[in-house]
Amino acid sequence: MTEASSKHGRLIVLSGPTAVGKGTVEAALRRRHPEVWVSVSATTRAPRPGEENGVNYWFMDDDEFERDEDEGKFLETAVVHGMAHYGTPLGPVLEHLATNTPTILEIDLQGARRVRERAAELGLDVEYVFIAPPSFDELVRRLVGRGTETAEQREKRLETARVELAAESEFDVTLVNDEVDATAEALWGVIAEEYGL
């Protein structure tokens, strides 16, 4: 256990394949447990309908993102689906952990791996939680039902999802997202244990 982890709860990294429902589970968790803070990622992708800057993501152009990356302002960055840059702003994460606020990063597999690489360097203790679909067929159904991607984008996401599913063993805990509220409560159980709540 690191010196930082003896004083504060662990950073919770929530990951899993595309369209598994990470965001839906996280939203259900926050409705029941508003004391949980979820990091807002930065991205260079365009906003989807209804998304707000600073709420869903910090939307940035490529130059702004690259400048912040060069200045070390991200905990991790990744190019997702070969299309857009994503990153976790480091400052707010450290601020919330310092006040022992239950802190979650909802990120893709690349991001989770980069956090693992930097955690020791930053003195962070991390619990890695994998959200899995009940089956691959259900994952396909959810992705198609979302209706936010073109056929080509969906195929690229499904290729990525196959790789992401194979990485489940890299995580400390797996939660199968069969039913959103039950999965959110299971996630709260992990957080409560880590933070002594």
How does the helix and strand content classify structurally?
A: alpha/beta
CATH architecture: 3-Layer(aba) Sandwich
Amino- and carboxy-terminal Cα gap: 19 Å
Shape: globular
Number of helices: 8
Mean pLDDT rating: 88
Describe the strand arrangement of the main beta sheet, using strand numbers.
Answer: 2-7-1-8-9
- What number of structural domains do the residues give? 1
**What is the CATH class name?**
Alpha Beta
User: Unreliable segments (pLDDT under 50, ≥5 consecutive)?
Assistant: 1-7
Number of strands: 9
CATH topology, which one? Rossmann fold
Q: Name the CATH homologous superfamily.
A: P-loop containing nucleotide triphosphate hydrolases
Percentage of residues in strands? 15-25%
Oligomer: single chain
Helix content: 40-55%
Task: Give me the Rg, rounded.
Answer: 16 Å
Question: H/E order of the elements?
Answer: HEHEEEHEEHEHEHHEH
Characterize the structure shown:
This protein has one domain (3-195): Rossmann fold, CATH 3.40.50. The protein is built from 8 helices and 9 strands. It has helices at 3-7, 22-32, 62-70, 90-98, 109-122, 136-146, 151-165, 180-195, and strands spanning 11-15, 37-38, 42-43, 58-59, 74-80, 84-89, 103-106, 126-132, 173-176. The strands form 2 sheets. It has a 5-stranded parallel β-sheet, sandwiched between helices. A 4-stranded mixed β-sheet has the order 4-3-6-5. Strand 5 and strand 6 (84-89) form a beta hairpin. The radius of gyration is 16 Å and the shape is globular.
